[in-house]
Amino acid sequence: MTPAAAPASPDGPGLVCYTGLSFMFVRSTHLVLFCLSVLAAAGCTAESAPATESPTRVSASVPDGAADTLLPPLTRTVEGRVPNGATLATLFDRHDLGDMAHPLVEAIREVFDPRRLRVDNAYRLVLGIDDGGFRQFLYHIDDDQFLRAAATDDGFEAALVPYRQLRMEQVVEAGIDAENNSLVAALDAQDQGVLLAVALAEVLSGEIDFNNDLRRGDEFAVLYEEVHREELFGGDGEPSFSRYGDVLAADFTNDGRRLQAFRFHVPGEPEAQYFDADGRSMRRLFLRSPFRFEPRITSRFSYRRVHPVLGGVRPHLGVDYGAPTGTPVIAVATGTVVSAGRSGGSGNMVRLRHTNGYETYYLHLSAFGSGIRRGRRVFQGQEIGKVGSTGLSTGPHLDYRMRKNGTFVNPLLAHRNLPPGDPVPDEHVEAFEAVRDAALARLGSEPHIAAAPSVSAN
């Protein structure tokens, strides 16, 4: 049985209906064809879904007293994962599509670049039993969309279809102790993934050094989003966890100091930001480190350090972070690229100029970020390169340096004196407080209003 496209619905697309086993039973004078369909997903509040197909019934007359007859299915379904080195053409060839393969690839090319085919991504191919003809092809692109190609009277048509998605708010509470002495370990003990730890660390990176500041007895609660999506390939049809969404709020007690952060989108700003309970920005002018999640510090700023390659006591005017080759390195602040290239013993290096006389340096990179070249504008948090071991280096790490008005300074100490970003504008304070209070209710907390800093007279 060939799947047929459903008529367009004013409420958007519905679900894909795939023909499974089809049975014919002959009873009395009626022949009825029952089409059993497998739905791609079950009902949930959805953003989008594939098209819907209705079962088909066929009736015919037969002599009375005829025996029940079981007829074979009209289609067969092949499910698999893209093998290493495959292309769309070779994938179709291995399933004997013959002359149909080339025009099918060309139809797909109109909406999807075949070069984006990824190893181990799932696919489904529906073929006719009698003629082996192509009926439908589905391919998982990413968590947001899949490719659908189908046979038509005029050839083939293809489209990119969004998955049905559901965002759910969740709260997790955890703590730092002897057994779980890191943010990742504490969340792992609550069956949460490392990416939630990364997201939380980014929110609070302006206030907590998660590599050095955590203490036993620290406690925290996080309000965050989970994105669930329909299961197109396998599963029971119910939406399942796909990825973490945004961190909406956090309440963190670190070494007796209580910190709260709330996600709020100031009207007119390009993206949401995080503010404390008073509406002050959680983002510093400079990020605490050039990583999305702080790795271990292997060497600190010093005027007297034994050089690991050259030997002898020499100044080390930066901070070394140990990290695997290829780890993304990000700009700690918005600025302009002064240089990006090979620089002697520093290896591949990026140098950025920022406001107020600051410059930052990123040494020993294995590669540069896309578009990173002299004169380019970069933004805080943008990837500018990847960790490597180029130049005078004994292993993969990043040597990160900061200069203020021509003099190198200790980045770990300088960060503490840098001002925060702009607070919530006065005209939006009421809206922010409503968002804050709703988040606190979900967390079961009260707002932590910090005392204003004292000002001493000269």
Topology overview:
Blueprint: E1 17-27, E2 30-39, E3 75-81, H1 88-94, H2 101-109, E4 122-128, E5 134-140, E6 145-152, E7 155-162, E8 165-175, H3 183-188, H4 194-204, E9 219-229, E10 240-254, E11 257-264, E12 273-275, E13 297-299, E14 302-306, E15 313-316, E16 319-322, E17 328-330, E18 335-342, E19 348-353, E20 358-365, E21 367-368, E22 377-378, E23 383-386, E24 397-404, E25 407-409, H5 411-414, H6 429-443
Antiparallel strand pairs: 1-2, 3-4, 4-5, 5-6, 6-7, 8-9, 9-10, 10-11, 11-12, 13-16, 14-15, 16-24, 17-23, 18-19, 18-22, 19-20, 20-24, 21-23, 24-25
Strand fraction equals 35-45%
CATH architecture assignment name of the largest domain: Roll
CATH topology of the largest domain: Nuclear Transport Factor 2, Chain: A
Number of strands: 25
- The structural class is mainly beta
Radius of gyration: 29 Å
- Can you summarize the main beta sheet? 8 strands, antiparallel
Fraction of helical residues: 10-25%
| Quaternary structure annotation | single chain
Number of helices: 6
Mean pLDDT level:
80
What's the level 1 CATH class of the largest domain? Alpha Beta
Low-pLDDT runs? 1-67, 451-458
Distance between the termini: 87 Å
